[in-house]
Amino acid sequence: MTHQPLGAATEPPPPGPALRRSLGVLDGVAIAASSTAATTSIGIGLGVTAGVVGLHLPAIMLLAFLPVLGIAGAYSRLNRVEPNAGNGYVWVGRSLTPWLGFMVGWVNVVAVVAFLAYTTAVTGSALIQLAGDAGLHRVGGLALDPGSTAQTTALGIVVLVAVTLTAVTGIRTAARLQAGLLVFEYVVLLGFCGYGIVTGPHPFRLSWFDPFAIPSAQALAQGLLLSVFCYWGFEAAFSVNEEVRDPRDASRAGITTLVTMLGLFLLGSIAFQRVLSEEELAGHGAQGLAFFGERLASQPLAALPLVALMFSAVASLQAGVIPTARAMFAMSRDRTLGPVWSKVSPRYGTPATGTLLVGALATAVAALALVIPRLSDMIMATVNAVGIVVALSYALTALAAAVRFRSLLREDWRQGVRAVVLPALSAAALLSLGGYLGWSFYRSADHLELSADNGWFLLVTPLAMITSGLVAAAWAKWVRRSPYFRGGAGTDADAPQLLATPH
Length: 503
Hints:
By secondary structure, the protein is mainly α. The chain is 69% helix and 1% strand. A two-stranded antiparallel sheet has the order 1-2. A hairpin with a 2-residue loop joins strand 1 and strand 2.
């Protein structure tokens, strides 16, 4: 049975520009895996999360995987019936309401731009740490400091510009670059983590897998959202579903990436807890992977995890630019954003202008992040804010799948459980977590200050992302008069011939 989208426009908007199809499933895996950035998440995210949940990283990673798996199933099923570069933006707009659909598209864009700003600083920090390992500690009269937001951001911006230019030339080129970086990263990760599990001085404990031993409900909620942030990025495979030869390849790539990330995160969390104490885990922040490497090997081998972290950060910068430019491309051809975002380069078949603009926006946000002088504070503030809005976006997309396929509950209860019940439960879990964490942030402070320890600041940041989306949606509806707000239909979703056009 064909499931018609709910709330479809009676008069579909005209077809928009098309992207060039050239990718296979392995290319999609490379892009999604680079966007998820396992090495960066292990090297930085594990230390940040350990500061919240203590020595229960395997438990929190397993627990967070369950709702994310439900979300991935929703993405996969929706992608099979309606592949679209805008994915959640179109799916939620059709099945729920265009206002929420626009919100999904908007917060994803804003979250990725914030992520790019934070990853820019991480990249710069890795480069400065490598320079220190090579004996370079000063440039002129400036002492190099891998914990300085100013120094790491300035150096990282240079890398961001370079990877943005590479992304302009074509997604195939980007996928090949990322595949090479991933091979190196994973070899280093598997080698060091495996060695750490075998030789680590701290005994293995089953309590590491016990979520009930986490100190408090707030720690559990914050740890889960931080872990969801670590998994965030698998859906990058769905942002290039108009550029793969078969849209089903995007689904395969997304699910493959997610399961791979679970294995790597469990391996990394067990290895870190075998090698490092709780204080060491929580205390080294952005330099956690370098410290882990030094505990297991002497130079120059000890520098390999740091090189892997740098490669991961570079790849995730590029992988962040690519899906964001495609999301804004999809929104632009619906006239919810300006026409500049939907210009396709005749030479490369990519949204080249939009890609450059995304890089420019990320550079500007990275510069704004200089108001938080310590890199570790900036990372904590960014990860918490992005975790909340990503949870909102995932939850709305899962609800869209549950609404869209609800008739399966009457036709085939097994399919109904997978297509409706599991996404609905995943959405409820993420919305509850986000709401509880936001409330705990509100209650934890009585004034606002620009600090990662201030609950109001941690709450205001995601609220500002969401509020800006409401303002942008109102402008798109009443000033741009976008046809999207007549039913949430994306242009190419009503013109399937574009999806099969060979190039």
